[in-house]
Amino acid sequence: MFLHEFPDIHWLKAQIKTGFENQLSWDGRKLKQPGWPSVILNAKANKVHRENITGPLSFFTNISGNSLVNAGKKELSVNENTFLISNSKQEYSLHIPLQAKTFNIHVGDKLASEVWYYATHSSKYLLDSPEEVFTTIEFHNRVHWRDDYFNALIGKLAHYESETEEQELIGELLLRLADTEIKHQQSANQLKVAKVATREEIIRRLYLAADYIYSNFNKDVSLGLLSRISCLSKFHLVRLFKEYFQETPHQFITRIRLEKSVCHLKSSDFGIKEISEKVGIKNASSFSRLFRHHFGVYPSQYKV
After folding, report:
1. In what order do the strands lie in the sheet with 57-60?
2. What's this model's pTM, rounded to 2 decimal places?
3. Residues 264, 185: Cα–Cα separation, whole Å
4. Integer distance in angstroms from the first to the last C-alpha of the chain?
5. Confidence class of residue 58 from pLDDT cuts 50, 70 and 90?
6. Do the bridges between strand 67-71 and strand 91-96 make them parallel or antiparallel, or are there none, so unpaired?
7. Closest CA to 165 of 11, 5, 40
8. CA nearest 165: which of 7, 31, 3, 38?
9. What is the pLDDT of residues 239-274, one digit of tens each?
10. Among 166, 155, 153, 115, which Cα is nearest to 137's?
11. What's the pLDDT tens digit per position in 117-138?
12. HSE (CB half, 13 Å, CA atoms) of 1?
């Protein structure tokens, strides 16, 4: 279901309270089953405040502008470079202080369960037990970087032609992110700490640093600043960051800047020097060298 306006908040909360028992959508259409339907919300908004919504598995991002999403006791900023996930039955609030164009994906309860059931069972088990059992996936409430893969899917979802295509695209997105989440869990298990509670606290602090980088990659992001944000000493942060993300903070920041520069090269007429400045690399020559080291060609060659 595709919407170009936010549904009335009172109507929505009443529907959530009954689990969409009447199977009616915001525009009066009959839904196939009770429970949250899959909804893509692509709407222009200004000074929007939507508080305390118990939603389905949801993705929050923007085509332009900034939003603040509060989920899991964290308030995080998302924009055209990032997205955030809130989990099924998790309460969230959405604030859009200034003009923005949102692109939020709310995954229907049944679809999310089916995808996760497939992702967590072997092919043999699925052959023997084709009927899905309700299961859920839990994602960390953190900022994610919008890579080329995610951007391509967003482009397709903005123009899907049938319910089948919509479900396939959302399913593809969920499977990709589920795989990423599983890999992060494996990285967490490799952290050299004995207690589970200590490991979870370390991951929470590492995400504070990563979330800041995603939202401020084009600024001067110093190791001292990341150390203060994560409440970890500088070189303790570097060691733990590399163990978990397989990159040092400096490598992480450089990769994000270069990936964003590719977006500018593909979709704008900015010159190399201007792109370099926009992604936070002040020296255009250094930017060109880094770009060639990472992608194998100079940005001037990539642009051609």
Report:
1. 2-3, 39-41, 104-107, 57-60, 82-86, 143-145
2. 0.82
3. 32
4. 39
5. very high
6. antiparallel
7. 40
8. 38
9. 999 988 989 999 999 999 999 998 888 877 888 899
10. 115
11. 777 777 877 777 766 666 677 7
12. 21
